[in-house]
Amino acid sequence: MISALFFLISLLFLYFCYGKNIKIFGLVLVFFYLITALFSYSFYFAYGKFLDLSLLQVILLSIKGAPLSIYYKEILLFLSCVVAILLFCLLIYQRSIKNKFKFKYFNYLFFATMFLAIAQNPLIYTISDIFKIENPIKVKLSKDRLHKYIVKPAPNKLNLDKNIVYIYLESFNANFTTDFADLTPNLNSIKNKIEFTNIKEPISRAAFTIQGIYASMCGTSYPVKEDKHKRPATDALCASEILKESGYYLSFMKGASLDFQGTRSFLEAKKFDKMSGKEEFAKRGVDKFNEWGVDDDVMLEFAFKEFMRLSQEKDKFLLSFITVGTHTPDGFISQKCSQIKYKDGKDKMLNAVKCTDFLIGEFIRKIQSSKFSKNTIIVVQNDHYMPLFSHTSNLEPKMYFLIIDDDIKELKRVDFAGTTFDTFTTLFGYMGVLDKMNLGRNVLKNLSFDKDLKDSVKKDIYDTAATQSLDLYN
To answer: Rounded to whole angstroms, what are the CA distances from 30 to 80, 125, 126, 157, 241?
Structure first.
């Protein structure tokens, strides 16, 4: 608001500025200000926050491979705004150049107010914040603060030698299961589960798929830096590595390409034995794809076959996968869901949510009906909040997180506060493995580490964990 006020005042001074070259340079500054404001508020509209190091990281990770064509409406809107800004600048120039009243001292007033407007622009704060992270003095203070909370995992011997099926639902907010009548009847009807009702996305570092999966599995922020093999440069000990040391076989599936956002590099770095993505499914004969990759109904057929194979051939395993059906902007409807609609069917995303509920419900029932059910724990969580959060009520968005096990005899709801950092750690706590993993906490027994911290302190700890990940325990 302060920035916009100074900007409007600077426009008034520009109108009375003296000298054609000054006016042209002034309009360049006006264009720069409006473009940076458009850029900043576009992120704020989509993700509820301005551009920061976390968002910048994922933009760089996502440049290659993202199907931009499905965002054509958003791209056209952005380009229209750019054209409108250009026309506005031309209009200001034409009006001001014809103005006969010019005052030299207004030149100084224009530059002073424009400087104040730019200095208050959110993007400038972003740039300043990024530079601060590399400041040696601030790094030292931030690392000292981080080390008060970071806990290197010290796993016990697994008390439950059960297999794990860990399902990530793309952008699937918990609000879909609570704020819409009959939208998710299959997930809501599951009885043998612990349902966590107060899990939230961290204020930074878990707003995109790779960040959300990493935050869950590792209980800390996705590293900013890569090693020479293009893998996440970190010494963080993660859930997959702990399971691997305990004799678990690790398999991961996604309908999209494993190379998008560096998923393959992450899985290789974290000791997964088998990885299947769009390219691997194509080799298996799949020839129908949506813009992101394989439809969920097809991937889930492969996932169940993988579950049965692993149950028969492996002593212990983790099978994890992520859906794609509820990906923004409008979701993707699998062929199995061609007749499934939510109410009048006009809202494409809510149709996609209902389809996901049907497919995941069917997948879970197939496992529970198999002879391997008693030896399997199923976990369901979303990877992150849905961007462009317009498909829920006005309630604050929450993460979706369930632990499903035949040994849970009745529905249990847990309202203890937590974040994405706590989800896999809480599963480990339920299994008796550990209660603390990096920044993650078992919320069945412990408070989430950041429960009583200010947002600025949380963000500092998250960013420090990401930028100093090669020295996380020292």
So the answer is: 17, 18, 19, 63, 52
